[in-house]
Amino acid sequence: MSETDQDTRTERMPGRGTLLLEGAGTVPRGGLSNCRIRTAFTNDAGKRIYFEAQGISKPPKGDRYRKAFAGIPWEDYGSTDFAFEITGRHDDINQRRLPQQQHAGRPVNLGEFPYTSQGLLDYINRQFGCSFDAVKIVNDGSYRVHGHDGYKFGDSTGQQEPHAVDDRNTVLERIRHRADGRTNSATAARHAPTRPRARG
Rounded to whole angstroms, how far apart are CA atoms 111 and 102? Predict the structure, then answer.
């Protein structure tokens, strides 16, 4: 019998395996092997989501900036930088933002979570209506969320977003065309025969 998610009021699917996250930073932080993580996944209701967060350590006790972190209950915590629905439009990052995306004044536990494997897993399952069994941060480049063919999903669905690819390819083609025009014009001018100057 499936479990009910009390926070989102949606029926949760049985465990969905491991969610992969790309390690996009350079150093470990808190209980995780990378200070910056990102992924794309499909939640239990079929909504496709992009998620990116960074791990933050509070300043040491006695530091003058410590007071600014008074509302954060964890020494090392994750802060959500990007959370938006993937619909295939090029402006999803701006038009389809989810409430978990970090903004000043957001309550703790909506955009923040303990920066541990269990904290990250619980946060994604609770906030985005998922039922993953585990999370795994990949630091060797074998999983990257941004691919040549659009978003690569870390939930083993193998999904990609073809519309985003089409939009990006169109833009790249325009850039190449303009660059080729400039290069050809500059090359032609450089190699054009010059007239000898009149003496006199």
Answer: 6
Query: Rg for the chain (alpha carbons), in Å?
Result: 24
Q: Which alpha helices (H) appear in 47-135, and where do they start and end? A: 92-95, 117-128
Residue for token pair 């990378």: 34
The candidate with the shortest Cα–Cα distance to 40, out of 117, 158, 154, 119, is: 154
Residue type at 139 in one-letter notation: N
Residue 135 bridge partners (DSSP): 19
Q: Are 96 and 87 in contact (CB under 8 A)?
A: yes
29's tokens: 């932080």
pLDDT grade for 148, boundaries at 50, 70 and 90 = confident
Please give the Cα distance from 183 to 33 (Å, whole number).
45
Q: What is the pLDDT of residue 109?
A: 72
The answer to whether 138 touches 21, Cβ cutoff 8 Å, is yes
Give the integer Cα–Cα distance in Å for 72 and 168.
Answer: 39
